[in-house]
Amino acid sequence: MTIQWEPLRPILAASQRFVISSHVRPDADAIGSEIGLARVLQALGKTVQIINTSPTPANLYFLDPTREVKQFGTGTTVADVAAAEVHVVVDTSSWMQLSDVGKAMRESAARRVVIDHHVSADDLGAVDFKDTSSEATGSLIFELSRFLEVTLPPDAATALFAAIATDTGWFRFSAVTSRTMRIIGELMERGASPQTVFRELYEQATLARMHLVGRALQRMVLECDGELAYTTIPWSDFLELKAVSSDTEDLVNECLKIAGTKAAFMAIELQNHQVKVSFRSRTEAVDVSQVSEQFKGGGHRQAAGATLAGPFADAITRALDAMKTAVVSARTAAPVTADS
Fold first, then answer.
1. pLDDT given at position 338
2. Does residue 241 have a pLDDT over 70?
3. DSSP secondary structure string for all residues of 243-254
4. What is the CATH number of domain 207-332?
């Protein structure tokens, strides 16, 4: 699928003030895409603010050393959101995922633009630029920079490299194509360093994170004759080990390292006793985006997430039942192609 960017030109031409936002608990694709897009807009002479509901995770500070990405309610207000002529939402199409920033957007008269690659979507009343076959929103921002003939500076190249690398599991997921690697090559030519990005993301762990990983691995359980693996992290682990939420990044993928597994999930109890669940699948036949949508979440066919109401044990049971159904149903389902 190729995005037709031309409808964005008149919006850019008619507007000066932009606010960029993304989903709660932003990952590298969210933060990287925001920074990359900010540089594109700034190159066009636009005034840009990046405002998210959630704070930037500490492991992503290297993408934003000057703390350009602000948290709503901490130095930024509804007035800052309302002052924009255009709100650009990246890496999500969900009101729930926008949370408090989304509420402020609803009250504003500003135009809305969405740039996203997720299948799940709400009607945000926006001009949509979506490609659900794209490996990352960061790739779409790169395409936009080409369309607008903007040369990306090194910090933007690094941010978009991190966005694409993390959303593709460092280029091992099925969405990766030769086009992906051509984009990566161009980002490296513009200053992105794979060694630096990998070191900052994966070689800066605290002892607390390593202990948390150990707990999660010890709790891992197999279901559905070994085709489904899952693990859980209660809030008490964070308190006891002095770990933080970003310490769980990518941890769900450990479940898929077990031979014979086809799908996995990880349930994490949050401080407010809601439960964040990450769903993964290694086969097109198990569509975890449909599982997540049962809980008003969203994502991709092979990677999705949702936030469930507690209590923790009940949320785990509901997630497990939904995933069991998906795995068992996939055994008898017709083969699903990547284009389905």
1. 44
2. yes
3. --GGGGTTGGGG
4. 3.10.310.30
